[in-house]
Amino acid sequence: MSDLHVVLGATGAIGSAVVAALTARGHRVRAVSRHATSGAGQPRASGTAGETAAGESGATSSEPLMTAFAADIATAEGAVAACQDAAVVYQCAQPKYERWAEEFPAFTRTVLAGVEAAGAKLVMADNLYVYGPVTGPMTEDLPHAATNPQGRARAEVDALILDAHRASRVRATLGRASDYYGPGGTNTTIGPTIFAAALAGKTARWVGDLDQPHTVAYLPDIAAALVTLGENDGADGRAWHLPAAEPVTGRAFLDLVWAVAGGTPKIAGLGRGTQRLLGLVNPTVRALGETWYQRDRPFVADDSAFRAAFGPVEVTPHAAGVAATLDWYRAH
């Protein structure tokens, strides 16, 4: 039986973290991106089973543990080639944020075709957009009530995946996470405008109300949880909220950043008015306005179902995650 785990979007923040988590657990990995190598027939190898097998220095296998693979998974040919021989496929790729409504459903159908052709299991790196505005902590049994284009697109994608599972076309599971931060996390609202800014002595800006509790996830914790879903058949057929450290206000999070970064703290919240102005010239910032309900009130995910099913679960405390993220920004 194949133990090949394929990561789509392997050079993105979540994808690269999933690759690292998989190799740390000794799985063979195909890391797929558009420009991974000079050609799909010439994968780049990294590491061997013998080098990474949890301290087992006696291992002698020289088989590469990770190979990089170039493919355009927006095409049927590319998706089938990328997923060939896979046991599990992790879908960490996506269209540009402002293009979700126009492109995400068709993109997902193509990926599903590749997973189905391989006879593999699909693990979808998902988010919390499907629920729309809520009162109280979010649980997986909430209705998919989002009415904005971004939320409707995610709901359609999730339905496509779970319908394919129910029809026995693929085995599938979805792992939902809130806003993330961590090493390599640059295309996120909890990224350069906070960490790089603090290291430069500039104002660190939180998107939204500084005093509302918000679930934020640390990238390596997201990756570890997605791999757990991939490894467990009991995860199949439903969505899970991935475990994260306790909810935190923007003000408290920025205080943690400055405590580690040093210097004179400078913090600010990016409010709705500023978002509207920036959105006039930046389509990604403009699209954030559709989901501003995630930023002007409590936005808290309940991850108790995952913990009950796959626990005990250890997540990274925010102080440690912030320190590791600042170290990464210093080095890059």
TrEMBL record:
InterPro entries to which the protein is assigned, alphabetical: Epimerase_deHydtase (IPR001509), NAD(P)-bd_dom_sf (IPR036291), NAD(P)-dependent_oxidoreduct (IPR051783)
A Pfam family: Epimerase
Positions of region (Disordered): 33-60
Superkingdom classification of source: Bacteria
Sequence ranges assigned to domain NAD-dependent epimerase/dehydratase in this UniProt record: 6-238
Bias (Low complexity) ranges: 45-60
PANTHER family, sorted: NAD(P)-BINDING DOMAIN-CONTAINING PROTEIN-RELATED (PTHR48079:SF6), PROTEIN YEEZ (PTHR48079)
Protein's UniProt name: NAD(P)H-binding protein
Source organism: Nonomuraea maheshkhaliensis
Lineage of origin: Bacteria, Bacillati, Actinomycetota, Actinomycetes, Streptosporangiales
